[in-house]
């Protein structure tokens, strides 16, 4: 994680531990303490090789609660926070989690153990709410048709049936463009089930507040909805003046919280995409807390 290379010591929170690839790379550099955080009950066992590492600790929880988690750990400020957003390969490849339109599984899609499942949205939400979620979170232009088809086919019990209902609802001529026809609908449901955008907003607020001077926040996102939130939150915290336009001199004396390190989002290198095709859509943004 090059964006943290200037941080030689201190505490870095890997807020999306998953399989721990990033956390291990940070630990292997030496000098850093790493807190791995993940809401997935299946992420904890991935720390088996790290239990004796005195520079590592794992917390099961959601990064929307980052401030409370740091309070509970007795930590006021940290030197870095990493968010590698979305689902892990493990979650996607495990049919029983219900994230994949490629494998039959239950309509679950929970990353943690929250009460809302995809089955509830698909089988109980109104057609209008379903269409709104599919449009807003999936950026799917056939959201109305898909919502109608889903409501007509209720009850739907598994991912394979849902994927085929979505596929049939999309006009045949457009099914071959933009990847699997159910990709956007599945993304939308997953975002709604896990309140992913709300979590990101709360997680970013807490990270920015709890960064020590010169500490860095690094976010890797995989779709434009997430990237837009990160870009706008960083930009708001980096503002130097919020005076109304037309004032001859600045009267607000705004002190920015952040300096933007990556003016434009950084994409993956070709080698990274070759070894992990899911990285193709990754966009990385980094911002640094202003010096005291
Ligand atoms: C893309 S994976 C991270 C992969 C990880 N960087 C690695 O090297 O293996 C995203 C992880 O973040 C977790 N996650 C997503 N949203 C979360 C949230 N709001 N709070 C905590 N963990 C979250 C998921 O459960 C998943 O394990």
Keywords:
binds S-adenosylmethionine, 292 residues, Rossmann fold, alpha/beta, 11 helices, 2 domains, 15% strand, 37% helix
Q: What are the low-pLDDT stretches, counting only 5+ consecutive residues below 50?
A: none
| CATH architecture classification name of the largest domain | 3-Layer(aba) Sandwich
Would you list the SSEs in sequence order as H and E? EHEEHEHHHHHHHEHEHE
Helix content: 25-40%
Note down, in words, how this protein is organized.
The protein has 292 residues and is of the alpha/beta class. The chain has two domains: 2-89 and 196-289, 3-Layer(aba) Sandwich (Rossmann fold), CATH 3.40.50; 113-193, Orthogonal Bundle (DNA polymerase, domain 1). It has eleven helices and seven strands. α5 crosses α6 (143-153), α5 packs across α8 (183-193) and α6 (143-153) packs across α7. It starts with 9 loop residues before the first strand and ends with a strand. The mean pLDDT is 95. It binds S-adenosylmethionine. S-adenosylmethionine binds at residues 16, 18-22, 37-40, 43, 62-64, 84, 86-88, 111, 199.
